[in-house]
């Protein structure tokens, strides 16, 4: 009896690889054997697929069925292969032809009655199918809008196994994706709602324009959280390439909305301070899933009450902050997730957190130990640090402050200037530029670099800190419309590196 073939996709991280599924029906007692490093969920698919085929009115072969998934060395995880497994078996049994099946990639989980259920990671799987040169991909109808975001490949949706088999036999039509309407921009709040805090507002604008990391310290109720929540409203919409990349991460994480499957606005992720290392960085049993740092890719990761977060969690942020990527090692390989985010930290000055410093009842050692969780290497990666103070009563009755819209216009202009400057390097913000590029190809005049060299000479700053201060100086220069940072820009950037 001939061998049946179908194709699906294995997703590892946010990357997919085409998987060929072969079915052989031989003599022997009726049984189903899966080979090719399947995990537990995939092993259980033998019973799901058999029941779905039978309940869809098809005959399951009376013999020994061997299903081989190749490449054999690649771990196969999840239930995304159910559709392809059933099609491969029926193709081997001669129940369906190979003409349409050989050109298609099948993605979806089967219910016992033959319904096709949605799975995580549809978008990166469709992108992998397109990269592999496949012409058609079949997905669950519930994931049709998400899959339809990919151009250059025909996307069809099946709600039941019967619909799919009818189409493979040359009859019937499968659903096609509808055009995706850009979701309406939802803002958490406007910057004009924040009273006073001119220095913190300016630091927020600089952070938005350059993609820099920010630390806000001050007593409770002073506006730290309000400022952080308004940072996404200052950022421009995601570019098409970044939008697909962020959407792919959220697809793997299973957090995409059916109403708005395409992420077009910079995400804002604010995990609780009790989050574990796995929740923050990613991981989990079986296939690794993205954590908060990857879900905040091209957006903002806000850690409120950061002094209450575990030391191991905070230290785990150091590598993604520096490299913009998370690598999660497993027995079967390494999963990679992008993690190019803006970090915003907010903390009280001490455990008792009084409204005024003179009312503090903490011992000096307790105050030092409280913010001591923010280690030197972590703080060295923070570009802007602001100590916020209580506002005078006149701040509540003063002139109206700028709105997010007016600040966003300046931020957008500054980002466009930076994008033109770094276009040849494939970067778009000052915060991404490597230090050696700043020192060798975009070196500042000696008089502008003098404050940085003086800080290095007296041991008040590391080489990494110097690079980050120069990046901030470039951002300040872009905001004022200058061509090259001057000494004043560098001095202002250095003032932001003083720990609050």
From TrEMBL:
Keywords: ATP-binding, Nucleotide-binding. GO terms for molecular function: ATP binding. InterPro entries: AAA+_ATPase, CHLI-like, Mg_chelat-rel, Mg_chelat-rel_C, Mg_chelatse_chII-like_cat_dom, P-loop_NTPase, Ribosomal_Su5_D2-typ_SF, Ribsml_uS5_D2-typ_fold_subgr. It holds the Pfam family Mg_chelatase. The keyword Oxidoreductase does not apply. Gene3D superfamilies: 3.30.230.10, P-loop containing nucleotide triphosphate hydrolases (3.40.50.300). The keyword ATP-binding applies. Residues 210-375 form the AAA+ ATPase domain. Belongs to the Mg-chelatase subunits D/I family. ComM subfamily. This is ATP-binding protein. The lineage of its organism: Bacteria, Bacillati, Actinomycetota, Actinomycetes, Mycobacteriales.
